[in-house]
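Task: sequence in, structure out. Protein: Plasmid-related lipoprotein.
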Amino acid sequence: MIAKCKSNPGELAASPNCINAQQAQNEKDLSRRGYLKLPPVDLNKRGE
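Result:
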């Protein structure tokens, strides 16, 4: 799917399937490198 999206970015780059495929590929690549998926930081919690 990613190859199809890259071959026609003008029409497909913003489609949900291409966005999901790219996000999945990014997460897969990061997990191979040993990066952790950390929870978002809550800036409203001060001093805790």
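Residues 1-33 form one domain.
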